[in-house]
């Protein structure tokens, strides 16, 4: 699989292949810029990684299959998907501009902060309303990720959701 950069073309991709060969078996977050995170964010990171490794569909276009080890990083205002085989052999990189994600990540951080504050003191109806907004933004970010990766990496929606969570975690600077 060659290195690929995102295009703005709206290509429709077929359903991602399923099976042991088209999945992530390990994930490495490049966290060298992270100083520390809140316990809530750390919990979200751990859950996202656990759930991702338990169940995912991840199929780089043109690949004969993995399983894959994904190194996820932010470099020079780009999201880097450094895909390796389980043997750690490089398999390809996909680079995405972070610009289309900036607004949604910012909004998602704001609503998450409101949610974490609300669960301490707010009424259940208020917490539920904030949580619905949080899930809606999360879904929007996941759809944007799938759209930006179309023609480069096929994945199911749950995989995109978990990866979007990790992209948000990478945005947190200490």
Derived structural class:
alpha/beta
Total helices: the number is: 4
How much helix, percentage-wise, in residues? 40-55%
- Average pLDDT, to the nearest integer? 84
Low-confidence stretches: 2-13
Counted up, domains total 1
Strand order of the largest sheet: 1-6-5-4-2
* Elements, N to C (H/E): EEHEEEEHHEH
Q: What general form does the structure show?
A: elongated
Tell me the major beta sheet.
Answer: 5 strands, mixed
Radius of gyration: 16 Å
Share in β-strands: 15-25%
Separation of termini?
34 Å
Count of extended strands: 7
What features would you describe in this structure?
With about 170 residues, the protein is an alpha/beta fold. It has one domain (about 5-170). It has four helices and seven strands. It has helices at about 40-55, 100-120, 125-150, 155-170, and strands spanning about 5, 25-30, 60, 70-75, 80-85, 90-95, 155. The strands form two sheets. Strands 1-6-5-4-2 form a five-stranded mixed β-sheet, with helices on one face. Strands 3-7 form a two-stranded antiparallel ribbon. α1 packs antiparallel against α4 (about 155-170) and α2 (about 100-120) runs antiparallel to α3 (about 125-150). It is elongated, with a radius of gyration of 16 Å. The model is unreliable at about 1-15 (pLDDT under 50).
């Amino acid at each position: 699989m060659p290195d690929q950069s995102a295009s703005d073309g709206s290509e429709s991709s077929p359903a991602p292949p399923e099976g042991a060969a088209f999945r992530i078996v390990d994930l490495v977050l490049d966290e060298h810029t992270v100083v520390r995170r809140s316990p809530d964010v750390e919990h979200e990171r751990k859950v996202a990684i656990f759930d991702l490794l338990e169940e995912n569909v991840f199929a780089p276009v043109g690949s004969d299959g993995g399983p894959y080890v994904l190194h996820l990083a932010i470099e020079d205002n780009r999201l880097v998907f450094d895909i390796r085989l389980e043997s750690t052999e490089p398999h390809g990189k996909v680079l995405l501009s972070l610009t289309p994600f900036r607004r949604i990540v910012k909004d998602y951080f704001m609503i998450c902060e409101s949610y974490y504050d609300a669960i301490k003191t707010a009424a259940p109806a208020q917490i539920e309303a904030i949580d619905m907004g949080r899930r809606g933004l999360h879904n929007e970010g996941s759809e944007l990720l799938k759209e930006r990766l179309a023609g480069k990496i096929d994945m199911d929606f749950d995989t995109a959701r978990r990866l979007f969570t990790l992209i948000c975690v990478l945005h947190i600077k200490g």
